[in-house]
Amino acid sequence: MTTLTRADWEQRARDLKIEGRAYINGEYTDAVSGETFECISPVDGRLLGKIASCDAADAQRAVDNARATFNSGAWSRLAPTKRKATMIRFAGLLKQHAEELALLETLDMGKPISDSLYIDVPGAAQALSWSGEAIDKIYDEVAATPHDQLGLVTREPVGVVGAIVPWNFPLMMACWKLGPALSTGNSVILKPSEKSPLTAIRLAALAVEAGIPKGVLNVLPGYGHTVGKALALHNDVDTLVFTGSTKIAKQLLIYSGESNMKRVWLEAGGKSPNIVFADAPDLQAAAEAAAGAIAFNQGEVCTAGSRLLVERSIKDKFLPLVIEALKTWKPGNPLDPATNVGALVDTQQMNTVLSYIESGHTDGAKLVAGGKRILQETGGTYVEPTIFDGVSNAMKIAQEEIFGPVLSVITFDSAEEAIQIANDTPYGLAAAVWTADISKAHLTAKALRAGSVWVNQYDGGDMTAPFGGFKQSGNGRDKSLHAFDKYTELKATWIKL
Ligand code: NAD
């Protein structure tokens, strides 16, 4: 744990100079329109600063610069070994500035400072260095040609990448895109969420400090319906990579069709089932994981284990363990290093979460933990981790992504029923299975329509494995070498010998 106390972080927060301008071609710059919007901290409602509200004019500037830099070859044609070294330096700078970035992240979106410092910043740095380290170890192919032909199968950077990211892991989601996008030689325009722009803005200058040429990484803060839409409709953006809601993901596919048919890669929402069979090897461990799966990051996690499917024969024994485990997840001031649940990102998101809790009551589910807004006197947006028992999978709280700390408990009687319920949502991002029976674990994992399946754990994984969704949770994958496919075009070159 950090040696800095809450008082230290609060002092640093008071001393902080917030940079809210866009970053284009290596320079901080106001929006062309001069418009700004207010950045309010969910920790206590304080105004953090004014942020450039970019729109289509800024998108045009950024795309022009990104295209020119790409065409210059300064980065796109640099030897992979050199790009690798630069990416590793970039990751090193994130670690060097870990406390500053962690503070920005926590103030901006409300997550606990210990998470920002020990999960988000190191995770973001790892995404940059892992991709950088890989780039000079990937070989192209030679096709099986006739004697008088040489067929080369090569990968080239796609060109200008628009990256639109959400607010729940602002820095980490950005770096899951930037790692492979930059390592493969593209120029990137990053559009952070209007709810959490601060770390992305800071990141841009660190990239240039690391030696990435100016114009390769540009950052445009602003709203989705203005600058996000402008990027998605832009005819000179080659690829759009997105993490966010399924609703906006679908919209981006339309924008692509209405413009230049840019490639669109989507990491969208989830409603992940966490299935606990009666023969789970360790019910206490399963209960603790179930609590963490809904409370970590205030439940604002795409893979949150928001549907807990429990075999009926152990329900009465298991649910009290989960309720007890959830008591260790207590909302508090995120600047306190001991806090493990912070504030929801803003008032709008808090009201959304509270309205889902209301809907759980209305639909007849039974509240067994939490259920209320708390710590109102702080001016922040805090909601107790909440559990509803007696949920049917048809209820709104079981079907829709809440993106807050609200757990639906659903009982089942057989493996077939568990699988049927687990797959019965529009989403397919992740799932977990708890059982001591190895065949049941494999068979259930195979039957689950989800991009990640965890057995006897929740939320495992690192950069080595792909991450993404089936169904309406998206397409393509972040992380691992598979992510490189999104940022490269495949070319066949035939040479007559
Ligand atoms: P969101 O879809 O509202 O916004 C995501 C981004 O899209 C933001 O930057 C926003 O400004 C932008 N945007 C909004 N409207 C746009 C438009 N018309 N054109 C272009 N851009 C637009 O999502 P959110 O509320 O920021 O994030 C929460 C969502 O993200 C949840 O659904 C969550 O599951 C998902 N998520 C998915 C993953 C994953 O890897 N699958 C990871 C984290 C979060």
UniProtKB/TrEMBL annotation:
SUPFAM superfamilies: ALDH-like. Keywords: Oxidoreductase. CDD domains: ALDH_GABALDH-PuuC. The active site is at E267. It holds the Pfam family Aldedh. It comes from the Bacteria. InterPro entries: Ald_DH/histidinol_DH, Ald_DH_C, Ald_DH_CS_CYS, Ald_DH_CS_GLU, Ald_DH_N, Aldehyde_DH_dom. Residues 30-492 form the Aldehyde dehydrogenase domain. Belongs to the aldehyde dehydrogenase family. This is Aldehyde dehydrogenase. It comes from Pseudomonas farris. The lineage of its organism: Bacteria, Pseudomonadati, Pseudomonadota, Gammaproteobacteria, Pseudomonadales.
